[in-house]
């Protein structure tokens, strides 16, 4: 079953073709059972305003209209296939949301689909998120997504020669930033340990660490080593 | 409560599908039931009223603010928060910038999907509790934090299941109100709304301190880029103004530029995003740079002939600013300065381009803009900054940390000598805290 008579221009990949139908239904139902689903989809005129204004549509084979249409048609085959690579083209800008006459939120639907794809540790998602590991490590362990020391010129040669200048004497430059808690190099600002410990609790209680373990066990181990070390530091301090 | 200066102007839009007022009614109901505690904006916050897209009056606090910083801004555009704090000090506002804040983690969510609504809500409520506990009202620096927090608030107010899921987590953290309530602020406020509310004061400062230094922005052409997560997420809750684009586009940023007397250069892709894409800027960079160059930089440079793109968020500033040089490889080099509304305003009001606005971190060309603004001594100012960094580096490398501390006492405008509005010196937020020091 190709399941894409119009619109969805990609062939259903062999990998997803071979997945049992019941599994595909389970995954799509997981998306549709999210409490946000019915707040994000109301009906569709097929007007295409969302796709016409979608930045990702200009450079990828991606259409927010397709997302909405496939949900309304309950096209399990295509939706399941979309959840492997297609949805990752979305820029999450929500231009589709503000422009839709029905106030549909295709970007929001994509957010749910991505979350379900990560939770179910699809192989395509694992591969896709590999280059993102540095960011995950930073945000999971410090609560900051970005820090000055992450902007190494080797990672961003396309940002030009000034990147190398910026990184020279980085520590001194950061110290010269004239506001409270802004002088950090390895975090965006100086984050208190207590704050990080609370964040770890949130990650644990909401299943985010479990999610990470399934998607990248090696990264998970590194993160947990750092988390446990910080938790021990915090306990020692509390005892003192 | 202070009123708008233009409060007699009738707002032209009454959007029929706006449901946002209901959120506030529900908040009151939930508070009456003891489920939530609303962190209210009071007179001590020196509130200013502004319009939103639907004509709702939104109350923007200007004083006694808890700064919810942006990891992208602090990490990559340090002149962004520095300019905000510079204005706070100039206006004598009381504020708190402390280390007990985590970022919203929503950039990560929109980039990788590795979170969920319960985690996002718990992070938001934890930070809001911290602000409430200190007695300061939260001011959100980051556009994605602002958009995500607006959406999270709506989800929490409209979904009992989410409130029930997040409450035990907050309880475990000790982050509930005195009677087990979730702490929810009356308004979610972005710094660009604060800037908008202060635009007359910014203009006064420009007249008083910027112009006497020879600074003149009247011949500067500015293209405004509104950040997607600021105005497209929960679109009914952001500043619009009948005097700015007839109330048809977001007002913040454009209003302060207009007030300063610069020319707003319109362009036909004004509604487009920048190409940041959350994941894309890091791992799909061909997309980001292609979109930024083709849809925005080219149009802004060739059609609008702008000297400057003014933004009000982290990702857009980075995307436009870092993706210019590579255009040379394809004969698509469209040099235009990029900075946030507050950074440009600070420059106009006479702030140091390097020490405060930290333009040193920019990869794109900003020097022609400085010349055009009349900041013709920028080379001397840059030398001053470079000498400062060199001096700090030498002391640091030599392990002379006591001397460094002494130096910072006179160098830092803010720590540990920032003062509250009643004139008392504020102790350093970090002096006695265990931090991820680096």
Ordered list of secondary-structure elements with their pairings:
The complex is a heterodimer of chains A (240) and B (438).
Chain A: H1 14-17, H2 21-32, H3 37-40, H4 49-52, H5 55-59, H6 64-72, H7 76-82, H8 95-99, H9 106-119, H10 123-129, H11 133-142, H12 162-167, H13 170-175, H14 193-205, H15 208-215, H16 217-239
Chain B: H1 20-32, E1 36-39, E2 48-52, E3 57-60, E4 65-68, H2 71-76, H3 79-90, E5 95-96, H4 106-112, H5 117-134, E6 137-140, H6 143-158, H7 160-173, E7 182-185, H8 191-197, H9 199-210, E8 221-224, H10 228-231, E9 239-240, H11 254-260, E10 263-264, H12 280-283, H13 285-303, E11 308-311, H14 314-322, E12 337-340, H15 341-348, H16 367-373, H17 378-397, H18 401-411
Parallel strand pairs in B: 1-7, 4-5, 4-6, 8-10, 8-11, 11-12
Antiparallel strand pairs in B: 2-3, 2-9
Helix pairs in contact in B: 3-15, 5-6, 5-7, 6-7, 9-11
What report would you give on this structure?
The complex is a heterodimer of chains A (240) and B (438). With 240 residues, chain A is mostly helical. Chain A has helices at residues 14-17, 21-32, 37-40, 49-52, 55-59, 64-72, 76-82, 95-99, 106-119, 123-129, 133-142, 162-167, 170-175, 193-205, 208-215, 217-239. The longest helix of chain A is centred in the last third of the chain and has 23 residues, at 217-239. Chain A is globular, with a radius of gyration of 21 Å. Chain A starts with 13 loop residues before the first helix and ends with a helix. Chain B is α/β, with parallel strands linked by helices and 438 residues long. Chain B folds into 2 domains: 20-192, Glutathione S-transferase Yfyf (Class Pi), Chain A, domain 2; 214-379, Rossmann fold (3-Layer(aba) Sandwich). Chain B has helices at 20-32, 71-76, 79-90, 106-112, 117-134, 143-158, 160-173, 191-197, 199-210, 228-231, 254-260, 280-283, 285-303, 314-322, 341-348, 367-373, 378-397, 401-411, and strands at 36-39, 48-52, 57-60, 65-68, 95-96, 137-140, 182-185, 221-224, 239-240, 263-264, 308-311, 337-340. Chain B has a 4-stranded parallel β-sheet, with helices on both faces. Chains A and B meet through α5, α8, α9, α11 and α12 of A and α2, α3, α4, α5 and α6 of B.
């Amino acid at each position: 079953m190709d399941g894409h008579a119009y619109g969805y221009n990609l062939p259903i990949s062999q990998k997803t073709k071979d997945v049992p139908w019941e599994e595909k239904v389970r995954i799509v139902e997981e998306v549709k059972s999210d409490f946000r689903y019915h707040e994000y989809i109301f009906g569709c005129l097929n007007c295409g305003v969302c796709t016409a204004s979608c930045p990702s549509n200009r450079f990828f084979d991606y259409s927010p209209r397709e997302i909405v249409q496939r949900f309304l048609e309950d096209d399990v085959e295509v939706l399941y296939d979309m959840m492997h690579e297609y949805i990752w083209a979305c820029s999450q800008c929500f231009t589709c949301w503000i422009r839709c006459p029905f106030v549909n939120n295709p970007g929001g639907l994509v957010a749910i689909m991505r979350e379900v794809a990560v939770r179910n540790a699809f192989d395509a998602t694992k591969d896709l998120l590999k280059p993102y590991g540095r960011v995950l490590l930073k945000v999971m362990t410090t609560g900051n997504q970005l820090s000055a020391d992450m902007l190494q010129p080797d990672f961003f040669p396309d940002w030009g020669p000034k990147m190398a200048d910026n990184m020279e004497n980085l520590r001194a430059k950061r110290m010269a930033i004239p506001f409270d808690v802004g002088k950090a190099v390895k975090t965006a600002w100086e984050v208190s340990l207590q704050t990080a410990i609370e964040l770890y609790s949130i990650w644990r209680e909401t299943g985010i660490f479990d999610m990470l373990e399934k998607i990248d066990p090696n990264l998970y181990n590194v993160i947990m080593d750092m988390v446990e070390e910080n938790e021990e530091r915090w306990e020692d301090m509390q005892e003192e | 409560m202070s009123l708008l200066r233009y409060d007699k102007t009738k707002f032209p839009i009454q959007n029929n599908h706006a449901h946002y007022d209901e959120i506030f009614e529900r908040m009151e109901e939930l508070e009456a039931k003891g489920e939530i505690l609303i962190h209210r904006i009071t007179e001590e916050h020196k509130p200013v009223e502004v319009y939103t897209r639907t004509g709702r009056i939104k109350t923007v606090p200007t004083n006694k603010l808890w700064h919810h910083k942006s990891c992208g801004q602090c990490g990559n555009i340090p002149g962004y928060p520095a300019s905000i704090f510079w204005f706070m000090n100039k206006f004598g506002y009381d504020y708190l910038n402390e280390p007990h804040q985590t970022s919203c983690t929503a950039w990560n969510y929109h980039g990788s999907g590795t979170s969920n609504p319960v985690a996002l809500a718990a992070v938001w409520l934890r930070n809001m509790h911290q602000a409430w506990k200190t007695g300061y009202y939260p001011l959100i620096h980051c556009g994605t934090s602002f958009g995500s927090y607006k959406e999270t608030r709506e989800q929490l107010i409209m979904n009992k299941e989410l409130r029930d899921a997040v409450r035990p987590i907050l309880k475990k953290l000790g982050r509930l109100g005195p009677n087990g309530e979730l702490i929810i602020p009356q308004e979610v406020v972005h710094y660009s709304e604060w800037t908008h509310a202060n635009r007359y004061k910014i203009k006064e400062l420009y007249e008083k301190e910027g112009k006497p230094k020879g600074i003149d922005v009247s011949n500067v052409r500015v293209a405004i880029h509104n950040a997607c997560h600021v105005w497209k997420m929960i679109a009914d809750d952001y500043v619009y103004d009948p005097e700015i684009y007839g109330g048809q586009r977001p007002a913040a940023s454009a209003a302060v530029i207009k007030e300063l007397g610069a020319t707003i250069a319109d362009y036909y892709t004004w509604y487009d995003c920048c190409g940041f894409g959350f994941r894309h800027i890091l791992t799909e960079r061909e997309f980001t740079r292609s979109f930024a160059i083709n849809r925005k930089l080219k149009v802004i440079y060739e059609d609008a002939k702008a000297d400057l793109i003014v933004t009000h968020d982290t990702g857009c500033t980075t995307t436009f600013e870092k993706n210019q040089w590579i255009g040379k490889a394809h004969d698509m080099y469209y040099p235009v300065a990029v900075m946030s509304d507050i950074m440009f305003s600070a420059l106009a009001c006479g702030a140091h381009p390097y020490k405060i606005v930290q333009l040193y971190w920019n990869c794109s060309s900003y020097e022609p803009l400085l010349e055009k603004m009349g900041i013709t001594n920028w080379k001397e100012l840059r030398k001053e900054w470079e000498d400062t960094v060199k001096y700090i580096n030498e002391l640091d490398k030599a392990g002379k940390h006591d001397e460094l501390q002494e130096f910072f006492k006179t160098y830092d405008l803010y720590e540990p000598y920032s003062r509250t509005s009643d004139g008392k010196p504020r102790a350093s937020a970090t002096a006695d805290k265990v931090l991820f020091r680096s």
